[in-house]
C-alpha cells in the first residue's frame, strides 16, 4: 500500500466543506461581483482572457458553483469576499 500526502488546506476543506480562494481568485471574483465581463477583468488586471477563464473555472470548481453569480454569493457567505460596498469600482 502506498502512502499519499495531502495538504492541510485539502484536509480543512474536507472537514469544513469550505475552501479558500487565492488572493488572485478573490480579486477576479470581486470584479465579477462588480459586474465586469471576463474581457473587462482581463483588461483591469492586465492578464490574458484565457487566464481569467482559468481563474473562473478554478473558482467555480472550488466553490461548487454552476455560474458566476452563484460563485459570488457562495464566496460572500463564506466571508471570502468583502462587503460589496467595500469593493472599489473598476
Question: Can you summarize the main beta sheet?
Answer: none
Q: What is the CATH topology of the domain at 22-83?
A: Arc Repressor Mutant, subunit A
Low-confidence stretches: none
Mean pLDDT: 84
Distance between the termini: 52 Å
The arrangement of helices and strands along the chain is HHHHH
Report Rg. Answer: 14 Å
Quickly name the level 1 CATH class of the domain at 22-83. Answer: Mainly Alpha
CATH superfamily of the domain at 22-83: Winged helix-like DNA-binding domain superfamily/Winged helix DNA-binding domain
Named at the architecture level, the CATH assignment of the domain at 22-83 is: Orthogonal Bundle
Task: Write up this protein.
There is one protein chain. By secondary structure, this protein is mainly alpha-helical. The chain has a domain at 22-83: Arc Repressor Mutant, subunit A, CATH 1.10.10.10. 59% of the residues lie in helices and 0% in strands. The chain has five helices and no strands. It has helices spanning 8-16, 23-33, 38-45, 49-63, 68-77. The N and C termini lie far apart (52 Å). The model has no long low-confidence stretch (mean pLDDT 84).
Amino acid at each position: 500500500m502506498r502512502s499519499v500526502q495531502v495538504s492541510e488546506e485539502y484536509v480543512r476543506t474536507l472537514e469544513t466543506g469550505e475552501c479558500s480562494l487565492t488572493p488572485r481568485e478573490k480579486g477576479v471574483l470581486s470584479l465579477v461581483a462588480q459586474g465586469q465581463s471576463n474581457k473587462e477583468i482581463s483588461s483591469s488586471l492586465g492578464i490574458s482572457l484565457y487566464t481569467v477563464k482559468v481563474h473562473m473555472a478554478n473558482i467555480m470548481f472550488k466553490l461548487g458553483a454552476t455560474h458566476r453569480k452563484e460563485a459570488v454569493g457562495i464566496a460572500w457567505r463564506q466571508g471570502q469576499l468583502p462587503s460589496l460596498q467595500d469593493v472599489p469600482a473598476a
